[in-house]
Design brief:
The structure holds two protein chains of two kinds. Chain A is mainly alpha-helical. Chain A is about 75% helix and about 0% strand. In chain A, strands 1-2 form a two-stranded antiparallel ribbon. The longest helix of chain A is centred in the N-terminal third of the chain and has 34 residues. In chain B, helix 3 crosses helix 4. Chain B is elongated, with a radius of gyration of 25 Å. In chain B, the strands form four sheets. A six-stranded mixed sheet of chain B has the order 6-7-8-3-9-10, with helices on both faces. A five-stranded antiparallel sheet of chain B has the order 13-12-11-14-20, with no helix packed on it. In chain B, strands 15-19-16-17-18 form a five-stranded antiparallel sheet, with no helix packed on it. Chain B folds into two domains: about 230 residues, P-loop containing nucleotide triphosphate hydrolases (Rossmann fold, 3-Layer(aba) Sandwich), CATH 3.40.50.300; about 120 residues, OB fold (Dihydrolipoamide Acetyltransferase, E2P). By secondary structure, chain B is of the alpha+beta class. Classes of the chains: A mainly alpha, B alpha+beta. The interface between A and B is medium-sized, with 22 and 29 residues.
Chain lengths: ~300, ~375
C-alpha cells in the first residue's frame, strides 16, 4: 500500500488509464472500509467459533471433560453407525424435504395470485403472507400445540369429530406430521416471496404468446410459467429446506420424542450429556447438509444462466 | 394458405366507466393487410387483443369467415401474433420456439422438424436454429417470432407494433420484407401502429382510430389525399388548414374567403354550412420570390414572409407568415446540386398552389 504522497508522484508519471484506475481504487477504498466493522464482528463471533466447532468435532474429550488430542473421526462414525442417531439424521432430511415440497405446491397459487392481481389485492395478500412473521416462533409453536392437541379436546380433533369426519380422536401432536405442519406455517413466506418475485419478472406477453400458439392454460403453466419461475423455486426451496433442517423450536414443541431433529440432538449432547465433540460433529454434519443443498441450487441456477448467452 | 375474411361487428370494450373501444365495425377482405392507426390510448391495441381473444369484448362480436369467434378460447383460434417485444420464450432455442405451436397441435416429431426447418428458411434464419433468443439481434428475434407465428398456418396474423423496437433503417427494410411475405402468403393481417409511415408503407387499408372510435377508413391515398376530418388531416402527414365563409359559388365549386389577402378556389361542391374548412398539403405549395408574379391578387396565392426555414436533406421545410398572421407550411424538394436553402428567413415570397390541392374537410 502506498502512502498518499507516493500515489500523487506516481500519478503524474503514469499513463492516464492506469492513473484513472488508481484514482477509482482510491475512491473505492473508503467504501470498502464501511464493511470492516461487520466483517470484524463476523470474524470474531462467527468464523472463529465455527472453526472451534469444526476443530472440536475431530478431537477427544477425556473423563474430566477437557477437549484435546488425539484427533479422531469416531464422532462422525458414531452418528452414522448408531441407529438411534442415524434415524435422527434421516428424520431431519425427510421433514425438511417434505416441508419444502409442500411449501412449493402451496406457494405457487398464492404467488401467482399475488403477482397477477390488482395492486390492492396484491398488497393485502402480501400482508397476510408476511404477518405471521411478526409473531415469535415459540408463540406460534404453542398455538399449534393447542390446535393439534391429541385427545378429544384438541381443536382439530373437536372439529373433525363434530363434523363426523372421524369417530375417535387422531394423534397428530408429537409426530413428524405436526413438525411438518408447524414448519410449513413458519417458513411459508420464505417460499412465497422468492417465487412471487420470479413470477413477477415473467413478461405477461410470453403467456399470451403461448396461448395464441395453441396452449391451454395448464400447458402455458407447465411449458412457460413453471420453467421461467425456476430461479424463484430453487431459491425458495433452498431457504425452506435450510431453515427447516436447522430448526430447533418447532420440533422441540411439536415433535416431542418421536420427531427429534438434528438441532434437538445437538442441544441434548451439549447441554444434557455434555459431549461437546459429538455435539460439534452433529452440528458440522447439519451445516454440511445445508451447504450441500445451497451449493447444488447455486449450481442449478448457474447452469441455467450459462446455457443462454454464448 | 387459405385467406380468411374477418369482420368486427359493433365491438366494444368498457373498463368501468371508461370506454376503450366504442362500437367498432369493420370488414377485412381476405388477404388484405389492415393497419389500425392512431395516437396512444385510442383503443387500437385493445381492439387487436379482442380480435386475438386475449381480451373479452364487453359487447359486439368478431367473425372469421362468418364464424362467430367471440366465445372461442384463445388457444383454439389459430391466430398468429407478433408482439412489440417479440415475446420469444427465453428458455427455449429458436427451433423449440418455432416448434411450440406445432407441439401444442400434437404434430409428430418428424413433421414438426420438417415444418420448423421450412419456417427457418422462410425467415432466413436456417443457421440460427440451435441458438437462444438472447443470442440474437432484435431484427433476428422478430424473424423468429414471425416464423413461430407462421408455422402454425394461422387463419390470420396480428401485428402489435411489431417493428417499434427496431432502429429506423432495419425497420424500413423489415416493413417491405414483411409486406412482401404477407402478400405472397395471402394472409389476412391486422396491424396496430402509431407510426403513420409504417401504416402507409404496409397497409392495403388504413383505419384511423380516435378515442375508441373509427375516425376514417380507407386506402393510403384516400386517407392522405382526402381526409374527412381535421384530426385525420393533422394526424397523417402535415396539413395547412384554412377556415372561412363562402364568398361566391361558381359551377361545381366556390370561392372561400380566408383573410383579406387570401381566398381559395375549391373545385368541390362545398357543404351548406356557412364556414368551410380546407386543407392543403405542404408539398402542394410552390414558393416563388415576390415580384415575379403580378401583384394583382388571385385565388390560391398569398404573399408572405419566411419565418423559419429548415434544411432536411432531400426536402426543405419553410414556415411562412402571412400579413394577417396566418402560418403556412411548405415542403419543397431540394435539387441535387442545390446549395442549402433557396429562401432565407425574413425574405418576402409568394406561395401559390393549384385549385385541386384544396380539399374540403367535412368534419371540423
Amino acid at each position: 500500500m502506498t502512502t498518499s504522497d507516493d500515489a500523487v508522484t506516481v500519478l503524474t508519471v503514469e499513463a492516464p488509464a492506469v492513473a484513472q484506475r488508481r484514482a477509482r481504487w482510491r475512491m473505492a477504498l473508503p467504501v470498502g472500509l464501511l464493511a470492516v466493522p461487520m466483517l470484524a464482528f463476523l470474524t470474531y463471533f462467527f468464523f472463529y467459533p465455527a472453526f472451534i466447532l469444526l476443530f472440536s468435532s475431530i478431537q477427544t474429550q477425556d473423563s474430566r471433560g477437557i477437549i484435546g488430542r488425539p484427533f479422531t473421526l469416531a464422532h462422525y462414525a458414531r452418528l452414522i453407525n448408531v441407529e438411534l442417531y442415524a434415524r435422527v439424521l434421516w428424520t431431519t432430511l425427510r421433514i425438511s424435504i417434505i416441508t419444502s415440497a409442500l411449501a412449493t405446491v402451496l406457494a405457487y397459487p398464492v404467488a401467482l395470485v399475488m403477482v397477477r392481481s390488482r395492486p390492492m389485492v396484491t398488497r393485502i395478500i402480501t400482508l397476510i403472507v408476511i404477518a405471521p412473521l411478526i409473531v415469535s416462533v415459540v408463540v406460534r409453536g404453542y398455538g399449534w400445540q393447542l390446535v393439534l392437541q391429541n385427545g378429544p379436546k384438541g381443536m382439530l380433533n373437536w372439529i373433525l369429530m363434530t363434523l363426523h369426519i372421524v369417530d375417535a380422536p387422531i394423534s397428530v401432536l408429537y409426530t413428524e406430521v405436526a413438525v411438518v405442519i408447524g414448519s410449513l406455517h413458519v417458513f411459508f413466506p420464505m417460499m412465497v416471496l422468492p417465487l412471487a418475485s420470479a413470477l413477477g419478472k415473467i413478461d405477461p406477453n410470453l403467456e399470451d404468446a403461448a396461448r395464441m400458439l395453441g396452449a391451454p392454460w395448464w400447458k402455458v403453466f407447465l411449458r412457460v410459467t413453471l420453467p421461467l419461475s425456476m430461479p424463484g423455486f430453487v431459491a425458495g426451496f433452498t431457504l425452506v429446506f435450510s431453515l427447516t433442517a436447522g430448526s430447533f423450536v418447532i420440533p422441540a414443541i411439536l415433535g416431542g420424542a418421536s420427531a427429534v431433529m438434528l438441532g434437538n440432538l445437538i442441544e441434548q449432547q451439549i447441554f444434557v450429556v455434555y459431549d461437546w465433540p459429538f455435539g460439534a460433529a452433529i452440528a458440522v454434519v447439519l451445516v454440511g447438509l445445508v451447504l450441500a443443498v445451497n451449493g447444488f441450487s447455486m449450481w442449478l441456477l448457474e447452469g441455467r444462466r450459462l446455457r443462454r448467452p454464448e | 394458405m387459405k385467406s380468411s375474411e374477418v369482420r368486427l361487428d359493433r365491438l366494444s370494450k368498457e373498463y368501468g366507466r371508461m370506454v376503450a373501444v366504442d362500437e367498432v365495425s369493420l370488414a377485412i377482405e381476405p388477404g388484405h393487410m389492415v393497419a389500425l392507426l392512431g395516437p396512444s390510448g385510442c383503443g387500437k391495441t385493445t381492439c387487436l387483443r379482442m380480435i386475438a381473444g386475449l381480451i373479452r369484448p364487453t359487447s359486439g362480436d368478431v367473425f372469421v369467415n362468418d364464424k362467430r369467434m367471440t366465445d372461442v378460447p384463445v388457444h383454439r383460434r389459430n391466430v398468429g401474433m407478433l408482439f412489440q417485444n417479440y415475446a420469444l420464450f427465453p428458455h427455449l432455442t429458436v427451433e423449440e420456439n418455432i416448434a411450440f405451436g406445432l407441439e401444442m397441435r400434437g404434430i409428430s416429431k418428424a413433421d414438426a422438424a420438417r415444418k420448423v426447418s421450412e419456417a427457418l428458411n422462410l425467415v432466413q434464419l436456417s443457421k440460427f436454429g440451435k441458438r437462444y433468443p438472447a443470442q440474437l439481434s432484435g431484427g433476428q428475434q422478430q424473424r423468429v417470432a414471425l416464423g413461430r407465428a407462421l408455422v402454425i398456418e394461422p387463419a390470420m396474423l396480428l401485428l402489435d407494433e411489431p417493428l417499434g423496437a427496431l432502429d429506423k433503417g432495419l425497420r424500413e427494410s423489415m416493413q417491405v420484407e414483411l409486406r412482401a411475405l404477407q402478400r405472397r402468403l395471402g394472409l389476412t393481417t391486422v396491424m396496430v401502429t402509431h407510426d403513420q409511415d409504417e401504416a402507409l408503407t404496409m397497409a392495403d387499408k388504413i383505419v384511423v382510430m380516435r378515442d375508441g372510435k373509427l375516425e376514417q377508413v380507407g386506402s393510403a391515398t384516400e386517407i392522405y389525399q382526402r381526409p374527412t376530418s381535421k384530426f385525420v388531416a393533422q394526424f397523417i402527414g402535415a396539413s395547412n388548414l384554412f377556415e372561412g365563409p363562402i364568398e361566391q359559388r361558381n359551377g361545381n365549386g366556390a370561392v372561400i374567403r380566408v383573410s383579406p389577402e387570401l381566398s381559395l378556389q375549391v373545385d368541390q361542391l362545398p357543404p351548406t354550412t356557412s364556414d368551410v374548412m380546407v386543407s392543403i398539403r405542404p408539398e402542394a405549395i410552390v414558393v416563388e420570390r415576390a415580384g415575379q408574379t403580378p401583384a394583382a391578387q388571385r385565388a390560391n396565392s398569398v404573399t408572405a414572409r419566411v419565418d423559419q426555414a429548415v434544411y432536411r436533406g432531400f426536402v426543405s421545410h419553410y414556415y411562412l407568415k402571412t400579413p394577417s398572421g396566418g402560418q403556412i407550411i411548405v415542403f419543397e424538394q431540394n435539387q441535387s446540386q442545390q446549395a442549402g436553402l433557396r429562401y432565407a428567413v425574413g425574405e418576402e415570397v409568394v406561395a401559390r398552389w393549384e385549385a385541386p390541392s384544396n380539399h374540403i374537410i367535412a368534419r371540423h
